[in-house]
Amino acid sequence: MKFRGKIIDPHCMKQFYSIVIILSKLCRNVVLRLSSTKLYLIALNESNSNQISVWSVLDQQSFFKDYDMIGETESNEILFSLPIDMLASSLSSAKQTNLKTLKMKLTDKLSPCLTIELDLESQVSSKQLCTHDIPVTVILPKDWSEYKEPTIPAHNISVVMPSIRVVRHIVDKMKRIGPRLMVSLDASGKMVLGVSNLSATVDTHFIDLEIVSVQNSTDKENKYSTIVDIKKFSQFLNCETLNLSKILCHVVEGLLLHCSIEEDEYVLHYFLSGIDD
């Protein structure tokens, strides 16, 4: 079992760091699944370990200048878990302009580690190397089935989300009113975010959103809704650090709010299970 990768493009280093930062706001631990062509960042639902809450896939050729791995079993993969906050902390230099290369490799230092090496330009010397060892837990092949690609149920409706900065600002204010957020979408391209308590009900309406797909496009009044934990949705909205062109919002009536980021180099899916009213 071996893994070694190197990123040299400044944009890719910042992008990788931003993805890790987003995940650090959504979960405590992340599973890295490495294959010869892809790098997966996976988080299980903390309240239901049988469900995946985050599924992110990076194309290794788009991010890595060098990528070398030898995995286990015929599938040639490696799976291990690690604390996402430690990974985010070790990559913090990736946002600096003097970072030349970012290297990652699996090492054995009394216990298995993911070693992060940051090569920085320095005014004092020609080279400054920062090394971080993150302890990892190797996942045995018999448990890999828990981290396979999730089956996504058919969406009732999918739209392009409004400006994430605006949505985040509104949702952060709504958190003071109640713990549950109702997200409603209809075929006219309207999104309604609603929160209530014993003394007040507050709704925010966004209109003329781009429709990606809808089950019954002929009925513009047909509305699909689900209720989710407002704090968990707010945490996802911090993904504005990626400077995205668009985020897709999908609703499965009463069951699921699914947000997805789909770029050429990577995809990121976030699943929020619906809760009872």
From TrEMBL:
Gene3D superfamilies: 3.70.10.10. Keywords: Nucleus. It is found in: Nucleus. One of its GO terms (biological process) is mitotic DNA replication checkpoint signaling. GO terms for cellular component: checkpoint clamp complex; nucleolus; site of double-strand break. The keyword Magnesium does not apply. The keyword Hydrolase does not apply. Signal peptide: none annotated. Its main location: nucleus. It holds the Pfam family Hus1. PANTHER family: CHECKPOINT PROTEIN, MITOTIC AND DNA DAMAGE CHECKPOINT PROTEIN HUS1. Belongs to the HUS1 family. This is Checkpoint protein.
